[in-house]
Amino acid sequence: MQELNPLLHSQLRLAIMSILLTVEEADFVYLKEKTESTAGNLSVQIDKLHTAGYISVTKDLTAMKPRTICRMAEKGRDAMEEYVNVLKIYFNGL
Amino acid sequence: MEDKKLTEKESIELISRMIKQSSNHLDKGSGNIFLVWGYVCAAVSMLVYGVLSFTLNPLYSLLYLLIPVVGGIVQAIVYKRTDKSSGSVESFASYAIGKTWNTLSPIFFIAMVPCVYYMFSSNHSIAWIALFVLGLMLPGIGTTITGHVLKKKVLIFGGYIGIVIGVIVLCESMINPTFGVVWCLIFAVTYVFMMIIPGHYLNMISDKRN
């Protein structure tokens, strides 16, 4: 049986990817609120997803405050699709 | 939430929970933009109605040009006071709504230029009627599209009221091209249904969700 993508098979990274799957973009504060994670941990996991090419990360200034914006990349969308397909196979086999 | 491994069941639950949370998102104060322009348009229209009724001097209808000035200032103040401490997200719905209003708003302000020109150079009433029709139909279309994207009947219905009243103004102006003072009153009431009620409704549901 095909293995689940280890990069996505972690609670926080999967939560980030699931949120970004449904929206155009989300900022760091929004992701922190929705995932109820610490800023340090979230930052590390965003960096891992970014390094893998699953998400794009940009920084801008809104109302003189720096803002980190995350967007799903095509590679990330494909990875999520594959992840869900593997889950489907797993549940169909039960 | 931590960086822990999940079971397959937990994965599915997490994906569906996160998708549900973010797809239901509506920013707090989503209706503020409707309220700003709704109240400004209704208040200025009532002011014009009052002044025209007392003075019978059609030049006072120029007070309508206060709308973009006052609306712009109030919108800037409201934007500055908006709480930016909570996170922001752009959903497909907010992206589509933003693009709709970003298309419709400049059309109105660009159309103001020839209307104001004709107002001063030729027939005063016809130019006002053109602005009236645009001022009812363009926001009406915007509110209706917003309502369809958010699946909110209050907005769809409110937008249609604006469009229908706009068509009525157009037909009436063809029958009788004099600018009647009563249209100022109708304009104000239409904005109550087209923008003020939808604005309060959007704020009510965004407050509940947040």
Descriptive account of the structure:
The complex is a heterodimer of chains A (about 90) and B (about 210). With about 90 residues, chain A is α+β, with helices and mostly antiparallel strands. Chain A is about 55% helix and about 20% strand. Chain A has four helices and three strands; from the N terminus they run H-E-H-H-E-E-H. Chain A has helices at about 10-20, 30-35, 40-50, 75-90, and strands spanning about 25, 55-60, 65-70. Chain A has a three-stranded antiparallel beta sheet with strand order 1-3-2. The longest helix of chain A has 19 residues, at about 75-90. The mean pLDDT of chain A is about 90. With about 210 residues, chain B is mainly alpha-helical. Chain B is about 80% helix and about 0% strand. Chain B has seven helices and one strand, in the order αααβαααα. In chain B, helix 2 runs antiparallel to helix 7, helix 5 runs parallel beside helix 7 (about 180-210) and helix 6 runs antiparallel to helix 7. Chain B starts with 7 loop residues before the first helix and ends with a helix. The interface between A and B is medium-sized, with 39 and 30 residues.
Report the helical percentage of chain B. over 70%
- Note the main sheet of chain A: 3 strands, antiparallel
Total of helices of chain A: 4
The mean pLDDT of chain B is 87
Average pLDDT score of chain A = 90
Computed CA radius of gyration of chain B, to the nearest angstrom: 21 Å
Structural class of chain B: mainly alpha
Q: How much helical structure, as a percent, in the residues of chain A?
A: 55-70%
Largest interface: A-B, 39 and 30 residues
SS element count, helices of chain B: 7
Which ranges of chain A are low-confidence, i.e. pLDDT below 50, for 5 or more consecutive residues? none
Q: DSSP strand (E) fraction of chain A?
A: 15-25%
Q: How many extended strands of chain A?
A: 3
The main pleated sheet of chain B reads as: none
What's the order of the H and E elements of chain A? HEHHEEH
Shape of chain A: elongated
Shape of chain B: elongated
Distance between the termini of chain B: 20 Å
